[in-house]
């Protein structure tokens, strides 16, 4: 199952908008037909558009993996420290 198949359409649009500012800008940058992203998200097949969307989703997933979360015990300690400062 691909990221495109697993993700919610609104989440997909959010990822595209985050990088390209609009779906139309994404379509222009990728040389896709107008409204092609919306059509794919509605279930109409387009291998080229689906591949472009999948590529953006994979890039976003890689970026998300590179973020290092703060360990829970440090976050709790910082929170307690702030509470005592009041």
TrEMBL record:
The keyword ATP-binding does not apply. Belongs to the ner transcriptional regulatory family. It comes from the Bacteria. The keyword Transcription regulation applies. This is Winged helix-turn-helix DNA-binding protein. One of its GO terms (molecular function) is DNA binding. Keywords: DNA-binding, Transcription, Transcription regulation. Residues 8-63 form the Ner winged helix-turn-helix DNA-binding domain. Pfam families: HTH_35.
């Amino acid at each position: 199952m691909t990221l495109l198949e697993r993700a919610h359409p609104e989440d997909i649009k959010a990822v595209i908008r985050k990088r390209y500012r609009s779906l139309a800008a994404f379509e222009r940058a990728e040389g896709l037909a107008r409204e092609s992203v919306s059509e794919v998200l509605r279930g109409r097949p387009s291998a080229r558009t689906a591949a472009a969307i999948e590529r953006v989703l994979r890039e976003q997933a890689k970026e998300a993996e590179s973020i290092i979360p703060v360990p829970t015990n440090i976050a709790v300690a910082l929170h307690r420290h702030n509470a005592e400062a009041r």
